[in-house]
Amino acid sequence: MNKKEINGHTHIQYQRDTYELKEAELRAKEYYEWLDTRRTVRDISDKPVSKQLIENLIMAGSTAPSGAHKQPWTFCAVSGSETKKAIRAAAEKEEYESYHGRMSKRWLDDLKSIGTDWKKPFLEEAPWLVIIFKKVYEIIEGEKRNNYYVNESVGIACGMIISAIHRAGLVTLTHTPSPMNFLTSILGRPENERPYLLLPIGYPKDEVYVPDLNRKSLDEVAAFYEQ
Asked: Mind listing the domains of the chain with CATH numbers?
């Protein structure tokens, strides 16, 4: 492997497979069509999922790019029934308040087609919960050091683990009870971490129904500038 010193740091030569244009187009199309089968699923089975599988999903998420390669995330994986029970109780308390006063009428109307409410049984039924915390700063040898582009970096990592979950034949949903500070307390996370996203992970139940939704077309999500 070829190496080069840049600014006093070792760099290694980048190598990977590339494809001719037609094959690249086909691979991109196939990947899009496969991702388009992903759905948010709330009916998650209690069928066991191994710790090894969760570890591999976490490591897939951890391959995400990050500002100055600070990797400002902690993936907290929870399988213990008592901890899941405590998380559900705290989340449902916040969700009840949201559905009964915090959310606007427009927001509640927009949720009707999704069919959600303040009850979150999946927080106990799913074999694993993975809570992603963002590290707003690091403590190194007693010194506070800022991280960069934290929200952007952690958001990308979340997208990558969601893709990996789909690849493994499992399902999840993006759960963001607001506020989320109870997760810091229940999991005993340090002061430099903030809860970002909660992902229940498992197999779908035997019979699952999801909203009959359509994703936006290319014209609705993209703009091209070719001159």
From this structure: 69-204 (3.40.109.10)
Q: What residues have CB less than 8 Å from 190, skipping those under 6 apart?
A: 139
Measured CA distances, 138 to 74, 91, 144, 146, 148 (Å): 12, 27, 6, 6, 11
Rounded CA gap, 133 and 154, in Å? 8
Residue with tokens 């070829």: 2
Cβ count near 69 (within 10 Å): 9
What is the maximum alpha-carbon separation in the chain?
61
Neighbours of 25 (CB within 10 A): 11
Render pLDDT for 34-84 as a digit per residue (tens, 0 to 9): 999 999 999 999 999 999 999 999 999 999 999 999 999 999 999 999 999
CA nearest 130: which of 179, 200, 180? 200
DSSP-derived 3-state class of residue 94: helix
Main-chain dihedrals φ then ψ at residue 110, nearest 5 degrees = -65, -25
Distance CA 201, CA 56 (A): 13
